[in-house]
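Worked problem 6 (solution included).
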Amino acid sequence: MVVVGCPRATAAAPARSPLPRRVIALFDNSSTDGPETVLAPYVARGDVTLRPWPQPFYLGAARMAYAACLEQVRGQFRWLACTDLDEFLFSPYADTLPPVLREYEEFPGVVVRWQVYGSSGHERASTEPVIARFRHRAPTDWIRNRRVKSIVDPTRALRPLNCHHFAYRDGALAVDELKQPVAVTPRPRFKKSLRPLYRLLGPALRRFDPYAGTDITSTTISVHRLRINHYPIKSREEFARKAQLKEGKKRYDGVDYFAYHDRNDVFDPILTRYLSKLRADVAP
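Solution. The predicted structure is:
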């Protein structure tokens, strides 16, 4: 899990400072790829904090991580964004988020829609960056793209309701990027044993998300100002590796999760604009 925060304004660092310092808090949910070594330079610079978080995912590990970080930064940060490592938050029209978020100062939070990317036909894993390898996604209005993650004001957010939504003080509501209020509503969920039927019934169930337990009252999928590119499967090899982990076996057993999310309808390499800077930043 990843939590990104922008500090609150002070006399030395006013709210309209063009590039306020960001802090990235990584909650390590039992990684096996040596994150301490990889992240050491960023931790040393103070840009990243790494916190072991071994709680089982199915017992609410993400929600508990977001809750812990919310309490830790309350009063220190103006905005707190809570995402997973396969979710890349950005603005399609601005280089950084703070100028965009100034448009939402009056609200306790803003939710950001997914754009789900498929495998782009890749069978094997690679060391190439995710944003270079996966450039095909589902249509913008695909039902799964109604899912969101939240950017919240820590002084007004009470707690995460789940890993997508928060509760706010005085019953206030977050908004979407169009500034439409969003209330969380429950959805009927497929029983796990019935989810494989989605492949067979396909078009008949196009307006149903077999993996969503909640929805929001705002139904328009707008990603012009804020957007999350979501890479839930990557290549077939990477997903198979993920599915073989203890947690993966519990989440994906008997479910054709890969086939459902392997949508490559739209060629959209929007994040490749960051490739040069990314490669420069991670060069030895």
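Discussion: Residues 2-9+16-199+209-282 form one domain.
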